[in-house]
Every structure is written in structure tokens, then in C-alpha cells.
Amino acid sequence: DHGTTYGQSYLVVRGDASCAYHADVLNKIESEIDKENLTLTCKGGGRIQVDPGTKSISIYGYSP
Question: Where in the sequence is the active site (predicted)?
């Protein structure tokens, strides 16, 4: 048991070459989390371009 912490939030940036949109990444990782103790929110809505050759991620387009 790791205890319970309320009111803390963390910004996590995650890219996935198979995902074109922020929400696609979120949908893909939702199955990996403990849904009883964690809540995910997609803060972006733009596009993600991953370049494995240069190990870079470009985030662009519309994000509220």
C-alpha cells in the first residue's frame, strides 16, 4: 500500500509514433493506469509528429 494522496497533479508529456493526436495517446495509455486512483485529462488537441531519427517530438496545431 503506497498510501493515498489527494489534490496532487502531475503534467506528463508522452508521445507515441502510432498516434497522430493527443487524444489518441491518452486513449492508448488509459488501459495501463490504475483508474481507481488516477484520473487522466487530455490538455491538448493538436497534432503530434514523432521523429525517431532525431529523437524529437513536435507538437503543433490547435490546443485549447
Answer: 22
